[in-house]
Write a structure and sequence with these properties.
- The complex is a heterodimer of chains A (514) and B (411).
- Chain A is 37% helix and 24% strand.
- Chain A contains 14 helices and 16 strands.
- In chain A, β3 and β4 form a beta hairpin.
- Chain B is mostly beta strands.
- Helices cover 8% and strands 49% of the residues of chain B.
- Chain B has an eight-stranded mixed β-sheet, with no helix packed on it. In chain B, strands 10, 12, 13, 15, 16 and 17 form a six-stranded mixed β-sheet that branches. In chain B, strands 2-8-7-4-5 form a five-stranded mixed β-sheet, with no helix packed on it.
- The longest helix of chain B has 30 residues.
- The radius of gyration of chain B is 48 Å and the shape is elongated.
- Chain B starts with a helix and ends with a strand.
- The chains are: A alpha/beta (514), B mainly beta (411).
- Chains A and B meet through α5, β2, β3, β4 and β5 of A and β4, β5, β7, β8 and β9 of B.
Chain lengths: 514, 411
């Protein structure tokens, strides 16, 4: 007994010794790392500060002829950068009452104007969240010594939300013309004068009415085009189609399966971050183009869903998303396989967490952006349920919705929707998971899944409904970012396919199309 | 029973009125008519701006103003039933530009319009002006630009076509030109004249003036010039310092170039060596100095202002200063006494002349010893530690005279 006690004391002693040592070491390392914190020496040079643009509205120099001095490319880019920054710091000031940046991008006398307005708004508890979207610069004058510039900024598109006591009062998108004088001071181009000009409504450029829609019908090459298709992810890389596992041959085989099954359309997803956010990666674009080519080879049309996994919608973030869309859309807008742009998958699920106003405003502007880059293709939004389908129906070319509710209620709900909308309707996602098993003892069997699809196909046939089913394959892995980490939810998501993990066609495959 | 009844009826009342209130509002929104009551669209900066509207429904309105520098939200001030009065805050009514307004309520706009505010007629003194570049070259090609960015009392840029006179003075020339403000500014390029000097520039507009600005006009590019030299004698004594100097260097308009311009004097010797000395100009003249060679030489000299101007080429010759000197060996030949070296008037050569001794063994150079003369003499000691007893060839060179002794036996 004594001996045992001694061993216990001894081990306790040793343990505490180790712990005390560990603590001392930890303390020393903490002290050292504390002493190493603070301003990084490189920040003295203000290098990092200037490199990243805080937001990137579209800026175009439309005219640079001026009587003063011909302007250099480098100066134009400096002016443009600081001018855009001047809008940014102003937007930040009005939304957060933080006027620090104003001092960098407005001259001493000009900044008073903003500070006074800001003070007034602060007293009245008014916050304005806004962002400019487009700038078109026309140079009027650049001085011989390169220190002064006067230019006009026409058709400045600006979206704003006004809050009073944190309650949204009003939101607008408006256009304005400004005349600006800037001076080069301490290496910054600073706004000296900013004068809002009288804005004459330009002859609105009629965007070419897409030839793809006629009443409630979708047309391709002047022929009615009933969409019969499927939401597509490769079996091995669901929700990561353009990642490391990108394999042309697999996609080609899959497209053949889809085509042979009598379908004519697929829907694919562009992940916002994966593609590089505001600076879209070239490699990703190449992969996307490959997919489009493969689809064309297989005579399939493609609906491209943008902004997958994007969920910010903050007004400060708008211009980044616009640049993203600009690059993706411009890259494949002339591709023959392209059928439609789906702005965002199930954005109504973000209403609660991000605010309905924000999401709706973002969507509205994004539709305008996408149409400005590609006026020729259909634009739609993949609402997650049939009830949301009427949202923004006046803005989209066809109304898309998903349906995972009771199949027996579908026909009725569809008829109701059909009376509310006079654009083509499109069931963009539907399906049933054959997930009966440990996690779902009462889940549907593969037979039930087949029956479900059979029933839907009959409805489609009777009512001429455009459809895309979910999805071609059962998946082995579903990323947590898609549906969360609850095992039973993840499990369900793995069994929506027409083809099982072994590559065998499930009974439902018979009813993949009609 | 009673309780239940009350509860139910309350619930029903609540439901009915709840919905009704909602309905009412919808109806209201459709019926509101807003009239603009007597206010103009054009103002001068600083004027008080009151916007009055008449609405046939009295719901709470706000006025959203969008101005150049920012947006504000105004609440109605009037207590009258259907008249809505808004006063534009002075910091907005003082600023030039368009103010766009929306009369809003409950996230809807009922009326929108815009006002235009023009700059006040009272200008600020001094007129805000910028001049650059402020240093230019004479000759009428180079210019400085005066940009006037005049503002009114509220720091607004003035209206287009306001007249601004830009004046400048140079020597006895005084000119003034009247220009109209366009795109906020009036500007003029002031070209240099043929003379160098200072141009004074200013702008005025009806009694209001800018500060005085100065453009420094510097002489233009230097023209080619003449090179000359001065020396005390023509002997190559390796001691005297000679001087090269230029003629007064000026530009093509006769302006003497600015002081401090570097002139390079480049010398090529008859042995194809390049020597160089530089000088900077003072009053257009640059001087360069160099020591005489220590042996007979012929020099070709030219001066340059690099990339710009050059002089003529001059040739000069140096005569041998030392005709001969004695060399004395000690008995063991290990001490070599050179000198006394005498110069052209038989005077002792000034200290510091280099005397070089070479020791060869079988045609290979073993050692080179350089010493400078003192009182015209140099002593060399050839130590036993370095040169064992043997037969060597010894050569002494100084002031261009070489003396060679074959088969000297060091003991």
């Amino acid at each position: 007994m004594k001996k045992q006690n001694r061993t216990i004391y001894r081990s306790l002693l040793i343990l505490s010794f180790i712990m005390v040592n560990g603590l001392i070491l930890f303390g020393i390392s903490q002290t050292l790392s504390f002493l190493n914190t603070g301003a990084d020496r490189s920040t003295m040079l203000h290098i990092g500060l200037k490199n990243k643009q805080a937001y990137i509205p579209k800026v175009v120099w439309k005219d640079t002829t001026n009587p003063g001095r011909s302007i250099e490319k480098q100066t134009m880019s400096n002016i443009q950068k600081d001018y855009v920054n001047s809008w940014y710091v102003r937007n930040v000031a009005y939304s957060s009452y933080d006027s620090l940046g104003i001092f960098d991008f407005y001259t001493q006398s000009a900044r008073q104007n903003i500070l006074k307005t800001l003070q007034f708004n602060k007293e009245n508890d008014v916050q304005i969240v806004s962002t400019t979207l487009d700038h078109n610069l026309f140079l009027d004058f650049y001085s011989a010594d390169g220190q002064l510039v006067v230019f006009e900024d026409r058709n400045v598109k600006m979206y704003s939300q006004v809050f009073n006591e944190n309650e949204l009062q009003f939101e607008t998108t408006d256009l304005a013309n400004y005349k600006i004088a800037m001076l080069l001071e301490d290496g910054f181009w600073r706004v000296r004068h900013l004068v809002k000009q009288f804005y004459k409504q330009q002859d609105t450029v009629q965007t070419k009415k897409t030839s793809y829609v006629q009443g409630k019908k979708i047309l391709v090459d002047n022929q009615p085009y009933p969409i019969k298709g499927i939401n597509y992810y490769p079996q091995k890389s669901p929700w990561n189609m353009f990642g490391e596992g990108f394999d042309e041959s697999i996609i080609k085989e899959d497209f053949d399966i889809v085509k042979k099954a009598g379908l004519n359309t697929i829907r694919i997803f562009i992940q916002y971050e994966d593609f590089g956010k505001e600076v879209v990666k070239k490699s990703k674009i190449e992969k996307l183009q490959t997919v489009m080519n493969l689809a064309e080879d297989a005579k399939l049309k493609v609906i491209v869903t943008l902004f997958d996994f994007y969920g910010d919608y903050a007004i400060q973030d708008w211009t980044f998303t616009h640049r993203h869309a600009e690059q993706i859309v411009s890259a494949i807008k002339n591709h023959d396989a392209l059928l439609a742009w789906d702005i965002k998958n199930e954005p109504n699920l973000d209403f609660e967490s991000r605010g309905k106003e924000n999401v709706m405003a973002w969507l509205k502007e994004m539709i305008a952006q996408v149409k400005s880059y590609d006026p020729d293709h259909l634009v739609t939004i993949g609402w997650s349920d049939i009830e949301s389908a009427t949202l923004l129906q006046e803005k989209v070319d066809m109304v898309s919705f998903h349906y995972y509710q009771d199949i027996n209620d579908f026909s009725e709900a569809f008829i109701v929707l059909n009376t509310q909308v006079n654009k083509p309707l499109f069931l963009q996602e539907f399906g049933l998971s054959s997930n009966r098993g440990f996690w779902a003892p009462f889940g549907a069997s593969e037979k039930k899944q087949a029956k479900y699809h059979k029933q839907f196909q009959e409805i489609f046939k009777n009512q001429n409904i455009n459809y895309l089913s979910w999805t071609l394959y059962d998946f082995e892995e579903v990323p947590g970012t898609v549906v969360g980490n609850l095992p039973w939810v993840k499990h369900k998501q793995k069994y929506f396919g027409f083809i099982d993990r072994g590559g065998n066609k499930k009974p439902a495959f018979e009813f993949i199309g009609n | 029973m009673n309780k239940t009844l009350i509860t139910y009826s309350l619930l029903i009342i609540l439901l009915v009125f709840g919905f009704k209130a909602d309905d009412d509002q919808k109806v209201k929104q459709q019926r509101v008519e807003v009239q603009v009551l007597d206010f103009k669209e054009n103002y001068s900066a600083g004027e008080k701006i009151e916007l009055v509207f008449k609405a046939n429904e009295t719901i709470e309105y706000q006025l959203w103003l969008k101005s150049s520098y920012g947006n504000v939200l105004l609440k109605t001030e009037s207590n009258l039933q259907d008249t809505l009065l808004f006063t534009v805050p002075s910091f907005l009514s003082k600023k030039k530009g368009v103010i766009h307004y929306n009369l809003i309520s409950n996230q809807q706009a009922f009326h929108s319009g815009s006002l235009q505010i023009s700059a006040s007629h009272k200008k600020t003194e001094p007129l805000e002006s910028y001049l650059g570049p402020t240093s230019i070259n004479a000759g009428g090609k180079d210019y400085g630009m005066l940009t006037v960015l005049p503002t009114d009392e509220y720091d607004n840029p003035l209206e287009d076509s306001t007249l601004i006179a830009i004046e400048h003075q140079f020597l006895d020339i005084e000119t003034s030109e009247e220009l109209a403000v366009d795109d906020f500014i009036a500007w003029k390029n002031i070209f240099s004249y043929e003379k160098s000097g200072r141009i004074l520039v200013a702008a005025t507009s009806k009694e209001i003036s800018s500060k005085e600005f100065t453009i420094d006009v510097f002489p233009s590019q230097a023209q080619n010039f003449n090179l000359d030299f001065r020396r005390e004698h023509s002997y190559a004594d390796g001691n005297q310092i000679m001087e090269f100097f230029t003629s007064t260097i000026s530009d093509k308009f006769g302006n003497i170039i600015s002081d401090g311009r570097v002139v390079e004097f480049s010398i090529e010797t008859d042995t194809k060596q390049q020597l160089r000395t530089t000088g900077t100009t003072i009053n257009g003249i640059a001087r360069g100095y160099i020591v005489h060679p220590n042996a007979f030489a012929t020099w070709t000299v030219q001066a340059f202002i690099p990339q710009m101007a050059e002089s003529n080429t001059i040739a000069l010759q140096f005569d041998q200063a030392v005709k001969d000197y004695p060399i004395e060996f000690s008995s063991d030949n290990r001490k070599v006494k050179v000198g006394p070296i005498r110069s052209f008037m038989n005077q002792i050569l000034p200290d510091g002349a280099a005397v070089t001794l070479y020791i060869y063994k079988d045609e290979t150079l073993l050692e080179k010893i350089v010493k400078s003369s003192s009182q015209g003499k140099v002593h060399f000691k050839l130590s036993e530690d370095f040169f064992s007893s043997d037969i060597y060839t010894i050569e002494v060179i100084s002031m261009g005279i070489s003396k060679k002794y074959d088969r000297i036996k060091l003991k």
